[in-house]
Prior knowledge:
heterodimer; A: 388 residues; alpha/beta; Rossmann fold; Ubiquitin-like (UB roll); de novo design (two linked rop proteins); 3 domains; five-stranded mixed β-sheet; 44% helix; B: 594 residues; Alpha-Beta Plaits; four-stranded parallel β-sheet; 18 helices; 33% helix; globular
Amino acid sequence: MISKKLxxxxxxxxxxxxxxxxxxxxxxxxxxxxxxxxxxxxxxxGRGGAGFPTGMKWKFAKxxxxxxxxxxxxxxxxxxxxxxxxEILDVVPNKVLSGMAICAYAIGAKEGFIxxxxxxxxxxxxxxxxIDAFNNSMSKIGLDFAIEIRSGSGAYVCGEETALFxxxxxxxxxxxxxxxxxxxxxxxxxxxxxxxxxxxxxATMIFRLGVKEFKDLGTTDSRGSKVFSISGDxxxxxIHELELGLNLAEFVEEFGDGDTKAVQVxxxxxxxxxxxxxxxxxxxxxxxxxGGSMMIFNSTRSMFNILNDYLEFFAEESCGQCTPCRVGTxxxxxxxxxxxxxxxxxxxxxxxxxxxxTMQIASKCGLGQSVAxxxxxxxxNFREEMIY
Amino acid sequence: MTKIKISIDxxxxxxxxxxxxxxxxxxxxxxxxxxCYHEDLCxxxxxxxxxxxxxxxxxxxxxxxIPAQNGMSIRTNSPTVRNARKDIIAMLVSEHNTQCxxxxxxxxxxxxxxxxxxxxxxxxxxxxxxxxxxxDTSSWxxxxxxSKCVRCQRCVRTCAELQHVNALTVSHKGKDMKISxxxxxxxxxxxxxxxxQCVNRCPTGALTERRYFDEVWEAIGxxxxxxxxxxxxxxxxxxxxxxxxxxxxxxTGKMVTAMRRLGxxxxxxxxxxxxxxxxxEGTELLSRxxxxxxEKDDTVKLPMITSCSPGWVKFCEHLFPDHLGHLSSCxxxxxxxxxxxxxxxxxxxxxxxxxxxSVAIMPCAAKKFEANRREMNDSGFQDIDAGLTTRELxxxxxxxxxxxxxxxxxxxxxxxxxxxxxxxxxxxxxxVMEAALRTAYELVTxxxxxxxxxxxxxxxxxxxIREATIKIEGALPQWSFLEGVDLRVxxxxxxINARIIMEQIAAGESPYHFIxxxxxxxxxxxxxxxxxxxNETIRKQRVAAIYEEDMSMPVRKSxxxxxxxxxxxxxxxxxxxxxxxxxxxxxYRKRQHY
Lengths: 388, 594
């Protein structure tokens, strides 16, 4: 695998595209099929973390026969260490809206929703004004599409797409069984496209700048650039847009404080990469993907405490319905503490590693499935910090 | 229907589109273990016990939740599946109160069975059982012990989907997620109707009926007490399931013998008071019809609705308190029985009513609450001292060391032990309606109901709401106002259907004269106090047994029950008499709705 040089990019926040109507009008000169073909061609993959090819998702939704379809912008940004969607919604909200409109035109949806994280309610008022103007302009250009905001209440699991639908429908935010997938039966049982905030902005930009401009960036598996939320032991904490496929060693060189011990790529549900693996790690779908969260830890940090914190987070934020996730997270906390205190032998960590394998393959949704990522990467790489 | 072909453990199987992997496996006799799955309920897919391997998919799939798709290749017993399943069961055990030896559901617990099958090693994981979990024993009917809860949400789904009551809900999330009530209020203070359907579907001992058999044993052992037990119609077709008989076996004779062997002084039949209910309720219906149709009395409500099912009555009190006037004022057969036991029976037997302990054996959890309603003491004493479930009777028979299979048959004691086929069919949905029509029609026309063998088929069956119209022809002179009237009746079972009926009434759009409502799906044969498991197949078999029992009875009309004739001659005088009114009728009250 060949990694790219670290390269700063300015697509997302580049303000030239802030006039939303123009780009939608431009896109609407193409047929829905041409739009979908262009998104597929661009290689754009979901920026929320899972990386599903966006164009394919749109294609599936378009092929569904239904009078009612929805476009939902997932702005329930809850992954620890991620704060880029908040910035995007604050600075370039119009690009998100036009991305939704282009998607709606492509799949045949008339209604769109932004599911806004509860903690981002401070954005509500401003966002609503912008949406009102946008809805107005859409009817002016002849696109029958309007957007509303739905406010979340602060549960991490509601970022899971089907739990988000449940929440929007007024029920407990608990993930559903899949299939059916959202493109078949999502919000209100209707075909639904649910995309991350950033994905929608890139969709806009693909039509503003052209497919080639986007596709020229990144690698075969990870086209384009990505907005990173950089935090932890770094002098450059904040939002940075970088070309995908970059090498973690270079990243650390640029953003670390000179004493970086590990980088947690992808938030609490992501992987922890130790110093010795920096230069072999590519940030992207061929390496370690991330929804944007990059947490940098220097040598003063206790990896046990970090893991303990993550697990507490999961044990709290699991919806609690499925056994592997509800019980597994509690077992992991109790287990690592028992080992740390010497109440259980260090071999018990191996038993817990097996447990995370079960959680990974048997949990109902991505939350329980991804706990294994941080657990196994931290326990494997920092085992000495875990034991008594 | 499109056929789907899949392979399970190398065997080919064909299913209908929409059927799940679990359905497909059943078809070829592959048993995939389940826990949160229940035939009566929507699929949750949350316990994950039923996971299987689907070729080409990294994650395991919950077979109860995933529809079969053409060409799927499934493995139900691969090392990966077995390991994961064992892990999942071990996880459930790790958050469970494993004091099985002292659990009421021991030997009939689905988690215990799974744990035994998979030989779960207690040391695999540390116990994460929450300390200081208190048991909610506030309700007369239902006990809730969260330390035994596996969070399968069967109870929540039961309460929501089958009953539309929503007394039980999920609260909190993650490690704190639990099954709770509105604001965590005690069970006695919420909208719970005590139907016990949740108890019947709970896989473990988290939800159980409140047991009273120890008090009953004590009374039996007390030489100064005269213990009277009466058995509800549907107990005789379900009790056998707990004691070695196949589902749908009628065990009336053995049950009577067994109760006598327990030391009960008098074994009587609630069917007697079911017949009595028909007399009172049938007359009440005719009197209401007269008041509405002839006297144009708009204070009298039609349709009249049956009041035998205490779960239904409490549902109505909670959720439709403005329409309680539609409920028949008749007490349920259990409470009529109790009131007569401590008056008529005591008098005839020359026993001081204060020495009588009246015990009702019921298919029901709500009957416990009903027995303890404060107005149920018209005999001057608490009319019914204890309401036991079919399950509790089964336990008592086991505790007494009786070999049930070998017991001889015997007949009920007298008085108040004689019954009819009409009384028996109270146990099945539609039964009260059928029994009432058999009597009311004959009362009005002097002729038997115009159905072959008096089997009023239109009101039978398992559909949630059924309706029928019976034209009254040849009315006797005193009922001439009913001549030619199309009597419109409906039968509903399961409280979700009760709600539909009541919403119709609330909207002033109910086309009926008389409605039977039973809280539990299938009526009493599917009651919350019946043997576990209960599901649709089992309910159908119990219903079939009820109708067999009806056909086997020499008398099949309530008004022809000789003991009923006698109780009116000697004591009550006539239906709706002053004595009846005092002892056999009751009132209802508004309750809060959360």
